[in-house]
């Protein structure tokens, strides 16, 4: 399921619910519906930047690597595209930019409404 984040000062941002959950849990916000007010935006930006920085310190876990190999097999597979892992920072970047815009322009971020 997709979540659409809206802000008057930034284009809409769509995220899969499972990816948005990590960010909204960090901000102590409800997954289904909510608001990050202009007053909350500076703190939200700082928290998300910190989480992104922390996630960059850790390489892909062995468990993820094993899962990828189990799915694609050990041998060369020419029928599939090369495996590309999408990092947390890549997934979070559009919402982070929206939060920065909300902070700078004193607007709210809404979802589920």
UniProtKB/TrEMBL annotation:
Pfam family, one: DUF1840
InterPro entries for the chain: DUF1840 (IPR014991)
Chain intervals for the UniProt region annotation (Disordered): 55-83
Name of this protein: DUF1840 domain-containing protein
Organism the protein comes from: Massilia phyllostachyos
């Amino acid at each position: 399921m997709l979540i659409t984040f809206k802000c008057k000062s930034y284009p809409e941002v769509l995220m899969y619910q499972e990816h948005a959950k990590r960010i909204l849990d960090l901000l102590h916000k409800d997954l289904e519906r909510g608001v990050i007010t202009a007053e909350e935006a500076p703190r939200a930006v700082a928290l998300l930047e910190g989480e992104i920085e922390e996630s960059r310190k850790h390489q892909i876990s062995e468990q993820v690597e094993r899962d990828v190999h189990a799915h694609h097999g050990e041998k060369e597979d020419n029928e599939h595209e090369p495996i590309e892992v999408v990092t947390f920072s890549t997934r979070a970047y559009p919402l982070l930019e929206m939060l920065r815009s909300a902070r700078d322009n004193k607007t709210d971020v809404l979802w589920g409404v």
